[in-house]
Amino acid sequence: MKSYPNTTLPCAVFGHNYIKTKSNKDHTLELSCNHCGIVVNTDAKGNFENISSPKLHIKTVIRELYLLKLQTVKAKLSS
Ligand SMILES: [Zn+2]
């Protein structure tokens, strides 16, 4: 297994725990992991850009979870 200096153990095992740090005017978001501090940006469709995640499937899962969370928030707002 390759080692990643910016990845703490929980991040390596469970994936990053992203929190939103910035909303941009062009509907992109800046997210950072509150464990290891990695910063990623999303595009206008919510896809991750510039992610340095060690595993592609983790990136995909995180994106799906994020989109799911987004849908939940939208559902709460519209009810
Ligand atoms: Zn992390």
Task: Give the number of domains.
Answer: 1
Largest sheet: 4 strands, antiparallel
Helix content: 25-40%
- Gyration radius, rounded: 13 Å
Assembly form of the protein: single chain
Q: Quickly count the helices.
A: 2
Side-by-side strand order of the widest sheet: 1-2-3-4
**H and E order:** HEEEEH
What is the terminal separation in angstroms?
46 Å
Give the averaged pLDDT, no decimals: 80
Please tally the β strands and state the result: 4
CA-based shape: globular
Name every ligand kind in the structure: zinc ion
Task: Give the class from helix and strand content and strand pairing.
Answer: alpha+beta
- Tell me the fraction of residues in β-strands, as a range: 15-25%
Low-confidence parts = none
Summed up, what is this model?
The chain has one domain (9-78). It is built from two helices and four strands, in the order αββββα.
Protein model, in words:
By secondary structure, this protein is an alpha+beta fold. The protein has one domain (9-78). The chain contains 2 helices and 4 strands; from the N terminus they run αββββα. Strands 1-2-3-4 form a 4-stranded antiparallel β-sheet, with no helix packed on it. Strand 1 (18-23) and strand 2 form a beta hairpin. The protein is globular. The protein starts with 8 loop residues before the first helix and ends with a helix. The mean pLDDT is 80. The chain binds zinc ion (ZN).
